[in-house]
Amino acid sequence: MTDAHLEPLSRHPRHMERVITGLFFVGLVAFGLFGAAYWQNWAAWTLGATLGVGMVAVGAGMTAWGKYLMPRGPFVEERHVLASAPEDLERFTNAIVARGGIEVRRRKVLGGMLGAGMGVFGVVAIFPLLRSLGPLPGTTLQTTNWKRGTYLVDQAGRRIHVGDLGVGSIVTVFPEGLENTDEGQAVDQTILIHAEASSWTTPDTTPGGFVAYSKLCTHAGCPVGLYERGLQYLVCPCHQSMFEVLEGATPVFGPAPRPLPQLPISTDAAGYFYALAGYDQAVGPGFWERS
Amino acid sequence: MAPLRRRKKPQEPLGPYGKFGKSVAELDERLGIAKGGRTFLDKIFPDHWSFMLGEIALYSFVVLLVTGVFLTLYYIPSVAPTVCHTPYAPINGQVTSQAFCSTVNLSFSVRAGLLMRQMHHWACDIFVGAIVLHMARVFFTGAFRKPRELNWTIGLTMLILAILNGFIGYSLPDDLISGTGIRIAYSIVLSIPVVGTDLAFFLFGGNFPGTAIIPRFFTLHVLILPAVIVGLLSAHLFLLVRQKHTQFPGPGKTERNVVGSPMYPVFMAKTTGFLFMIGGVTALLGAFFQINPIWQFGQYKASNISYAVQPDWYMGWLDGALRVMPSWEFVGLGHSIPFEVFLPAIVFPGIIFTVCFLWPMIERRYTKDALMHNLLDRPRDRPKRTAAGAAMLGLLSMLFIASATDVLANFFHISLNSVLIAMRILVIVTPFVCYFVAWKICLELQAVPKAGKRKVANVVTLTTAGEYVATPMPPPPGADHELAPEFVPALLELEDGGVDDGSPHAGDAGAAFGTSSVRTVPR
What we know:
The complex is a heterodimer. By secondary structure, chain A is an alpha+beta fold. Helices cover 34% and strands 15% of the residues of chain A. Chain A has two domains: 3-133; 152-288, Rieske [2Fe-2S] iron-sulphur domain (Rieske Iron-sulfur Protein, 3-layer Sandwich), CATH 2.102.10.10. In chain A, helix 1 runs antiparallel to helix 2 (44-69). Chain B is mostly helical. In chain B, the strands form four sheets. A two-stranded antiparallel ribbon of chain B has the order 1-4. Chain B has a two-stranded antiparallel sheet with strand order 2-3. In chain B, helix 3 runs antiparallel to helix 5 and helix 6 packs antiparallel against helix 13 (339-367). Chain B is globular, with a radius of gyration of 29 Å. At the A-B interface, helix 2, strand 1 and helix 5 of A face helix 5, helix 7, helix 8, strand 4 and helix 10 of B. Strand 1 (75-78) of chain A pairs antiparallel with strand 4 of chain B.
């Protein structure tokens, strides 16, 4: 055979055969080692290493076989016209149009009734498929569990004493009894800050320079967990919105549009923090019903 | 007495293909596979490397399916609290969700479990990456033009589903970082005007986080979305076979043929080898490069947060869009529209994907080109399309970088505010710069003769006399059909003048494959 297209690409096929045999042998050994690694429960990485080396070697061998030892080509295949012959197209279209016209009499009545039925079907199908999935929101998003007199507790359920936090410290607080519930964690989470009292301008401060803000970012609802004491900023680690702690948590930078709502707090006779009232607005990110 | 066993009848003589031929004949009698099967074996695949990108996507999807099935055997889709017993000491004895505990345990207690999990995650990142590169190749070479507009649409739909399923998948372990991602997703759904609140409540079965989302995500992730992707994938490949491959122009390559390697045996050997190599590379990544170590992040708790919270790479552009967006909220008439979330997270990706979906139509309206195209464009020959693609990639890259503003600020010791402002400017400016630069480069390249042609290497030898002699190497074998630039026949003719008398031609692959429909390129 003299046709260059049918000859292998490799100029030294014998040599290439040896290389490929070597690759397959590496694969064989590696797969064997994979079995051993699994059986003997060797370190986790040995499993992936043996499997990976084996598969790459066998794969490279197969690819090299195809590329270097099989006919080099290139070969050519004719394309066929995709479109059908005009008479076939005509017969096809005719069957759709003409048969429909003949077979379906009283089309208006039938079609109208079918259309109406399908329309109602489409509408009512939404109920089980979508409406059943969850409750209507109602006013759920407008409210939290904070009420007048609710004590602030930390993650472990301990009430927060005025002496617990030094200046520049923060703690995440929850309504007492709800610290380990989904709602308490996701909705009511509040950050209590003992800020520097010197340049204080927030109207509802409590004695001692303590202030409590909702921990839910007004941008996308991440916990605003980063307190920059030097700048007196609260920073959201998700999208870097910054809130000025001493100015009522007004957003000073980033995508958050609204201040973090403030929880009015006070201390009881023993020095434990409680809420003077709930939040005066919905906490967290914006939504349509929020006014 | 009659013999118990009848004597065997003498067998009919086997044909020239022996027992194998007989089995094929038996099969063909029942299924009629011979004719279509032969066409299938003869299908030609172009040899250009860029056609491999789609294969990478396909084979990493295979890896995803195999490793994914393994993971479903151990993962428990529930947020029910449980005391987690695990070999990993820091978590052992803690109360976690079933989802988190089972993911930790399938990593540490199940043999090969960690490997499978890491391979699954790596394969996903490769899958989406390969789809994007494949799509870029199709875009820049104009492979989406008539008759392949539908396949462009199917491919793009698969990209969107792949991104979505990737997000849902890495949300399943219920760890701190993925839980934060779900929280942001909830806020994004909330931001949709009028129906957002209801949609979010339906999707999550109530207010965030609820107990419904992890099991629902699981069903979506392992059943619904993969089933849709497999269906679309089949349609994608069916159309590919039906319409045949595109190819780059070159000697012997026309609008009416396909030049390359036949399905059997050449392409089959190469592509099966490639499947193994991709599986192997994924296994090596899974073995040596840790990905998503959820036991370090810990169980998700809605009031906890970590520093440098970033999603997987293919969600980065959306996270970046959320970061660079100014805080424009509409409040009035008793309602709010959180544009600061709705625009970057819903409207913006909607626009991007709509433009991609409509691109074949947009371009066709602009070029008034109604012809069938099987030969690919060189990107430089379509400067405006190439520039538009570059602008899109520039925009998305900038948003991707913007998803790391905090990391950048830390790394370069510059203020976060400066980084964000710089990124806001770059996101606006970069697409225009990319457009102009790409357009200009295209025009310049068009003017350079032979630019981009494969160069012939010079071998420099030092003679005994101390002289250097440069000798041009002969073109490497196999590259000759790319190196002979002069002969481009409009339509491939048979070498004996177009009369096919059934005898083998000089360049007839029939000698090897016994065919008359597969032929070599005349030279």
